[in-house]
Amino acid sequence: MDVYLKNWLLNLEFIEDFSSLTYRNIPLPLLSHFYSYLDQLFLQDMIKKYVG
Fold it and tell me: What's the burial of 29, exposed, middle or buried (CB within 10 Å: 0-12/13-18/19+)?
């Protein structure tokens, strides 16, 4: 979980960039989990960078 906390700006950018996209008047960031859109290799690289 530390990896996500250290990269929280990615999540903030996702919210800002995609809040205009809606489904039934609900913004996309409220309907989805940001990290589910990230490629698994990217997530592994993030974890290696911060965890070791």
Answer: middle
CA distance 27 to 34: 13
H or E element, residue 26: strand 26-27
Per-residue pLDDT reduced to its tens digit, 1-52? 566 666 778 888 888 999 999 999 999 989 987 777 778 887 788 777 767 6
Structure token pair of residue 29: 């960031």
Cα-only R_g, the chain: 13
CB burial of 2-23 (b: ≥16 within 10 Å; e: otherwise) equals eeeeebeeeeeebeeebeeeee
